[in-house]
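Postdoc handover notes: sequence design on the structure in folder B. Input tokens:
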């Protein structure tokens, strides 16, 4: 199986490294400095495991000639150009690890509905320096056909992930899984970007945990109105946060934050915070834009979500790149 990771930043590199180490033919497509370092000295993976993967890497997606499995890991604003660069490929399977409730639509427009498979991930990753990706949170990856029916290729992809030593499973409702992940990621990302605080400190702050729960519940209301039932994922207990007592939900987050700090997991941060830190426009529209519009169309009140959306957009408005 020939695997191409398009947009091989942190997550694409972690996946690519593990898959290459397991013997799969992997090509990373990414930015120049990272790709040059990978080609010069291999791809270093750290975090849960420490190894150097001998993986192919290029900056020129147009030069690719084949891909059986195409992993879309580019930033949301870069999707249109990235897909244009690989539109000549005819992959058997295409999956997007981007965030947003409409992330699969550009893939369908580019390749047709047949190859597109749903996916979502709670793997945390960060580029430490060119050529070095660190896995900051060794979480699960879920796959599912868009019609939620079982298929041989679905189980085959899960088996590929498992053979690479990655945590993976089939989701009975991949759309609900994607919404459930986003319902937690979006509040955490927005709060980290606005406060510049790491994940474990956000969870331990009663005020920030309050806002996190409020946003999760607002997203849960939107989901329910549009026929999506959120559920708990490992490490992301969205259903519990939306249905339990509000104070109890805050205590759950506080306990999680303390456990992360006690175990030394204090380097977990969000891509949105990284974007703000380096002065790059964020993915807030991909994360929140569609949710805000769906809420408006259904006359759902989402004050916390609206504030986070507009506040991050306000920061983006002063960014030049």
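Designed sequence:
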């Amino acid at each position: 199986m020939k695997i191409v990771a398009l947009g091989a930043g942190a997550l694409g590199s972690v996946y690519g490294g593990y898959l290459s180490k397991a013997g799969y033919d992997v090509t990373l497509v990414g930015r120049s400095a990272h790709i040059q370092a990978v080609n010069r000295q291999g791809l270093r993976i750290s975090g849960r495991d420490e190894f150097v993967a001998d993986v192919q890497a290029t900056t020129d997606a147009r030069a690719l000639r084949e891909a059986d499995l195409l992993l879309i890991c580019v930033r949301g604003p870069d999707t249109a150009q990235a897909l244009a660069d690989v539109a000549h490929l005819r992959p058997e399977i295409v999956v997007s690890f981007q965030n947003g409730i409409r992330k699969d639509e550009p893939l369908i427009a580019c390749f047709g509905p047949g190859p597109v498979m749903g996916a979502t991930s709670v793997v945390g990753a960060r580029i430490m320096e060119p050529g070095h990706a660190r896995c900051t949170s060794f979480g699960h990856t879920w796959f599912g056909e868009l019609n939620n029916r079982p298929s041989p290729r679905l189980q085959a992809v899960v088996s590929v992930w498992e053979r690479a030593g990655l945590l993976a499973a089939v989701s009975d409702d991949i759309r609900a899984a994607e919404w459930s992940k986003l319902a937690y990621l979006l509040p955490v990302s927005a709060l980290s970007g606005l406060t510049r605080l790491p994940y474990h400190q956000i969870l331990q702050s009663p005020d920030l945990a309050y806002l996190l729960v409020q946003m999760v519940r607002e997203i849960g209301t939107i989901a329910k109105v549009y026929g999506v039932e959120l559920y708990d994922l490992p490490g992301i207990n969205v259903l519990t946060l939306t249905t339990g007592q509000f104070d109890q939900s805050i205590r759950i987050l506080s306990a999680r934050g303390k456990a992360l700090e006690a175990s030394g997991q204090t380097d977990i941060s969000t891509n949105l915070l990284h974007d703000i830190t380096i002065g790059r426009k964020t993915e807030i529209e991909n994360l929140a834009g569609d949710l805000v519009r769906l809420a408006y169309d259904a006359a759902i009140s989402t004050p916390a979500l609206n504030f986070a959306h507009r506040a991050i957009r306000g920061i983006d408005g002063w960014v030049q790149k």
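Context for whoever picks this up: Residues 10 and 238 are 25 Å apart (CA to CA). Don't rerun without checking with the PI first.
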